Amino acid sequence: MNASSFPSFSNATSSPHAPTFSELLALVLLFIKIILNSVGFLLNCLLLWLIIQNIRKLHTTFSILLTYTLVNDILISTTLLLCLKRIVQCHETVAMVYFGPCSLVSPEFCHVLDSIHLHALQNWILSQILLIGFRTAMLSSVQSFLSVKKTVSFCILAWLPGGVTLVLHIMYTFSPDRLLALIHRCYDEDFSHSVVSGYESFYNSPMPFTLVMLLVPNIPHYFFVYCFRHKQNHDLKRRTMSVTTLRMHSTLRKVSTMKAFLPLFLLADVLIFFFCQMELLPPQFMEYFLGTISSSINILNPIIAICCFRPYRSMFKEYYRFIISKLSAHPKVVFLDGSSDEIVNL
């Protein structure tokens, strides 16, 4: 295993020879990751601002849950863009080579941001369980579940496992020099001038617990998805349903179907990391694709909310028309060479 098998991004731009396919692939995937997270960050901030501006017009409980999800999405995008890490694996050692803005500060600062990133990913999957549970409760008679106090309590409970993970990762101590010595067993590439953090041994780090907390919540999530679809199919058989209720069922079915696929993007990243660590996949999968697949979530999540829920769609259209009207309002010029009041738009 040598440096040519795992090209660095700095070498991809500074080497005199023509870039290899691996270097081009790495740069293309990096560009895609930056675009997805930048656009996702803007969309999530827009939707969060719409919710805050119109909180009194919206369903309070659902707005709280969606806000909880949006905050996690924003954290995921922000920390990823600040870190822009390259994951280097050598046997049980996992090192993060940073070339984002955090590298201008210190390895410890990058490590904290990366810990927050993992914490936000874990909270995101738990927030999806809360959302699908909310939709299931809307179709049942368990209206007490929809109270604001209990909703906030559920959000706090969902945050606690991620909070434990965050503390474990931040408290983990590492030696950059020791990490460099370990990864140089597999790499000829010189990382001495890079900002590096990571885990000397995967098995003696918080990473196994983090993987479990990213994998296990998928089980209750898809259990709730099944319960929701079963309940909805049962309710749709009733012929006494009003048009408004039928429209609500149709919207919830559409949203639940699309939302059910979102955790699969994160699951793909987790499985890539797991199989690479078990040496069932070559480390290139972890180095190139990890983080790129799950970045799609940050765009799809706000788009689904804006397009499928009428209150958010109406707010988006209202502000869009307002902005367009302001941009299209040109100053008017009066012709001075005549006695008429003729006015023309520029």
Helical stretch tally = 12
Runs in which pLDDT lies below 50 for 5 or more consecutive residues are 1-15, 332-346
Which strand order do you get reading across the main beta sheet? Answer: 1-2-3
Portion in helices: 55-70%
Quickly name the level 1 CATH class. Answer: Mainly Alpha
Please tell me the overall pLDDT.
80
CATH superfamily: Rhodopsin 7-helix transmembrane proteins
Structural class by SSE content: mainly alpha
- CATH fold description: Rhopdopsin 7-helix transmembrane proteins
Query: How many separate domains?
Result: 1
Rg from alpha-carbon coordinates: 25 Å
Number of strands: 5
Termini separation (Å)? 65 Å
Biggest sheet layout: 3 strands, antiparallel
Outline: globular
CATH-derived architecture: Up-down Bundle
| SSE order | HHHEEHHHEHHHHHHEE
Q: Give the strand content.
A: 5-15%
Task: Please supply descriptive tags for the structure shown above.
single chain, 346 residues, mainly alpha, Rhopdopsin 7-helix transmembrane proteins, three-stranded antiparallel sheet, two-stranded antiparallel ribbon, 12 helices, 5 strands, disordered N terminus, disordered C terminus
Write the layout of secondary structure elements.
Layout: H1 9-14, H2 21-53, H3 60-83, E1 85-90, E2 93-98, H4 107-138, H5 148-171, H6 176-183, E3 195-199, H7 207-215, H8 218-236, H9 243-277, H10 283-289, H11 296-308, H12 310-328, E4 332-334, E5 343-345
Antiparallel strand pairs: 1-2, 2-3, 4-5
Helix pairs in contact: 2-3, 2-11, 3-4, 3-5, 3-11, 4-5, 4-8, 4-9, 5-7, 8-9, 9-10, 9-11, 11-12
